[in-house]
Input
Amino acid sequence: MWKTRVTELLGIEYPIIQGGLSMAGNGELAAAVSNAGGLGMIGSNPGWVPAEQRKENLRHHIRTAKALTSKPFGVNFTLFTLRDVAEQQMDVAIEEGVKVAVSSGGNPRLFTRKLKDAGLLVMQVVGNQRQAKTAEEAGVDIIIAEGYEAGGNNFPDELTTMVLIPYIVDAVNVPVVAAGGIADSRAFMAALALGAQAVQMGTAFIPTKECHVHQAYKEAIVASQDTDTVITQRAIGTRIRGLKNPHSLKVLELDQQGAAEELRAFLGLGKAREGQMEGDIENGELQIGQVAGSVTEIKEAGDVVRDIIGGASAVIERCRRIQSQEEEGVC
Output
């Protein structure tokens, strides 16, 4: 039932991919998602370590995942910062026999050929049709179209997932994965209805037992409501979605004042680590997607996958009932 172009290419059972999640994407989490039938992903800097330690940190998490699963998993590479480090990490992934790579925040022409020549399947995160076409021309195997609902860094065009997915599906011939605002069976089925061949989810996998972020961060997500995320840092040319807290509201205030230099000074270094890994939910940056308010419990990562697949049948049945009523003239 869940056979798509993406499941066939990746060799997975269900069309569900865990987002890389940067520092939140540890090896244990990736293995748990893969063992449940999805595709687990290791982040670009699990746990957050200095640049000089990131090669071996990634190697550690890859080996951890390999010890816990025999199923496919991938690694996410962020290209917009520390390009040299990202390339070194790619070398580690190749050495360790990783078969799937996701690149984001940079030009897919930089490293797609290097990764494909080493035998990896390559996915690229995009936010508009132009980026999707560029990725396809660069030889990317799968495109991840990420809407404005997503947590962390967002694309400047601010296209929402509902609008973006059909645009990208119509623009390219390679399979498309939908990302941004997906955390349950309804959104999963909606993404497939829009033409996606799979979904990528980040927020839903953070408050899980296998994810190594601080417990206070997980609890803050579970306690959040529908309007509890905010986009900040526009004044310095970026867009970061995270939970509202004293830190993000101060950043928003500086944004609205256009105080770019003061904002840069206030942000400093390590605010995301303080919030996500150290549990300072007042003064840290808590990157999370708009769908956080619908995530209401901390559970095993495998159950996130199983609950979505299990609930999808009910969504299909509801649509069938609506169709039947329409044919009978009820609607």
Observations:
- Residues 5-211 form a domain with the TIM Barrel fold (CATH 3.20.20.70).
- The chain has two domains: 5-211, 215-290.
